[in-house]
Amino acid sequence: QFHKYIRTLPYFSCSTVLNRELVNPASMKQALIASARRLPGVNMFEQGHGKLDLIRAYQILNSYKPQASLSPSYIDLTECPYMWPYCSQPIYYGGMPTIVNVTILNGMGVTGRIVDKPIWQPYLPQNGDNIDVAISYSPVLWPWAGYLAVSISVAKKAASWEGIAQGHVMVTVASPAENDSEVGGELTSTVKLPIKVRIVATPPRSKRVLWDQYHNLRYPPGYFPRDNLRMKNDPLDWNGDHIHTNFRDMYQHLRSMGYFVEVLGAPLTCFDASQYGTLLMVDSEEEYFPEEITKLRRDIDNGLSLIIFSDWYNTSVMRKVKFYDENTRQWWMPDTGGANVPALNDLISVWGMAFSDGLYEGDFTLADHDMYYASGCSIARFPEDGIVIAKNLKDQGLEVLKQETAVVEGVPILGLYQTHSEGGGRIALYGDSNCIDDSHRQKDCFWLLDALLQYTSYSMTPPSLSHSHSRVAPPAGAEQPLPQRLEGEG
């Protein structure tokens, strides 16, 4: 229906609007946005500006004056649910900046420019000086549009302050006038972008969780296969593995438990580890730079903890799930498995840890919770003074490759370890991420994530795990070869 309305509107507006010269792609979009009716209970990424209203759009176009506008027209990080996920967590000093992308629509002409620079003007009576706003923008607007990237962070003086802060960004857009008799030969329009945020005191380190987004990759830049191999009707891992997409339930659970979750969209060398209790790595596909590996080891020695939810990785299975792409007329070989286990092994090898290339699946019970292991790997090596939990699972790799069924006893799937350095952090490994992923989850394991965070953030070892009947001696695995990268395939 939407596309039908979009096709109908140009004919409808151009044939009846009094001044047809004012109708252009930007002015038409401005009219659609200004006339749309917002839907209740739905966030802006799901509904945009709301439900189209063609009659109101026509009325706006009929009295339209060429101007610039912004989409969204304001930033209110306190307005839920429309501004979700921005409104789901207050901001605080030392946190990752909140970045909002704003589109500039220029109804004055196909080309335009931003005059001088956008200006941040804090409202001092409304505590606007408690936030710092940085702006990047497109100096030239073409065709019909440009952008503002607004980065919002809390000023140092508000590290222990709580309240609402407000201000606005002012932008002036100029476009060449079609009629040279216009003053200065240009049309100008000034627009304001109001900003409102909620600030809280900086949370304690133990309550701060950093989600590693930088090392999560998705189709289409490469062929990243699904994490659960049983879901054959959905072969590509295309959700992005982000806390606001297919890990949304997990994110909301962590918020309900009082944790503050931030997203790291840069290499591991680009964050201050002393600010965070736990680094959470889930289903990572990207490689790690040597500098990242070195820094993470130093960070964990200094008190940062690490939780890794891995996934399957097996080169034989990867060859099995390749497919012929009709568009590119090429065979597509996976760039990695469900997760990049060789890269993860490089990251954790200094502590004598490693994941295997085993591929396992099955139901089991852990700490009185029903669990499902969906296409996960096992732990191949772990320090002898660590805690390891093992379960009996099906060999899914054998099933995929040879259509045979076999049960493997004592598959190590969970490991907990306290590093030896004074004041050092803790490490927890689990071989499957599907139980915290919304995409194909059958049984959630948020309780396990809670238990692991109690261990990593507060050094509280869950008795249900340390005294579990499923606890086994950590695997040395010295004689077992570790998975290697798939080279020379294409």
UniProtKB/TrEMBL annotation:
Q: Kindly give the InterPro entries that the UniProt entry links to this protein.
A: MBTPS1_3rd, MBTPS1_4th, Peptidase_S8_subtilisin-like
Q: Which residues does the annotated region (Disordered) include?
A: 464-490
Q: Which residues form the MBTPS1 third domain?
A: 71-202
Q: Which residues form the MBTPS1 fourth domain?
A: 203-466
Query: Could you mention a single GO BP entry for this protein?
Result: proteolysis
Q: Which domain of life is it from?
A: Eukaryota
Q: Where is the signal peptide?
A: none
**Can you tell me where the transmembrane regions are?**
none
User: What keywords appear on the UniProt entry?
Assistant: Hydrolase, Protease, Serine protease
Question: What's an example of a GO molecular-function annotation for this chain?
Answer: peptidase activity
Keyword check for Hydrolase: yes
Its protein name is: Membrane-bound transcription factor site-1 protease
Q: Which organism is it from?
A: Ameca splendens
Give me the gene this protein comes from.
Answer: MBTPS1_2
